[in-house]
Every structure is written in structure tokens, then in C-alpha cells.
Amino acid sequence: MLFVKSSLKSISNGVVVEVRSIAASSLKVKLLEMGITEGKQLKVLFRAPLGDPMAIDVGGYILSLRNSEAELIEVEPILSVI
User: Fold this and answer.
1) What are the Cα distances from residue 20, in Å, to 48, 59, 76?
2) Is residue 80's pLDDT more than 90?
């Protein structure tokens, strides 16, 4: 099955993804320090009522990201669960 890479911002709630890359920006180091690294599995949990920010599961802890931050993270949906 072929999946298309997209930004984390566009992923629906409940979907498990694998991080493929993080765009070069002033936030890249901060995202890496929070555990968002290439190959890491993330699960989109939910979004705030107006859609921003979003909550994701990163290796057992919940992290809140703004859409502008999630847009920097290129991911690919996967079939397995965390």
C-alpha cells in the first residue's frame, strides 16, 4: 500500500504516523529536543475546538503543537499502533 507524505498539520485525529523529516527553521532544534525525530511514531489525539493547537502522543507523553509548528513536520501514515 502506498502512502503519501504530508505535514502533521493535515493528519486526522486518531491516525498514527511516522516522522520523515522536519523542515529547517528556528524551531527544528526545539522539536528534536521534544522527541520529534525522524522515524519516531506519533499519534494525533485531538484538536482544540477551533482546530489549533493539536495534541499528539509522542512516545507515551502528550504534546501540544500549534498548526504552524505541525506544518514543519513531514509525516507518513502507518498501519501499526504505538
Assistant:
1) 25, 16, 7
2) no
Higher pLDDT, 81 or 9: 9
Say how far apart CA 74 and CA 12 lie, in whole Å: 14
Class of domain 6-77: mainly beta
How many secondary structure helices (H) and strands (E) does the chain include?
A: 2, 6
pLDDT band at 3, cuts 50/70/90?
low
* Residue extents of the structural domains in the chain: 6-77
CA distances to 1, 48, 50, 66, 73 from 22, rounded to whole Å, are: 24, 23, 25, 15, 5
Choose among 41, 38, 36, 2: nearest CA to 18: 41
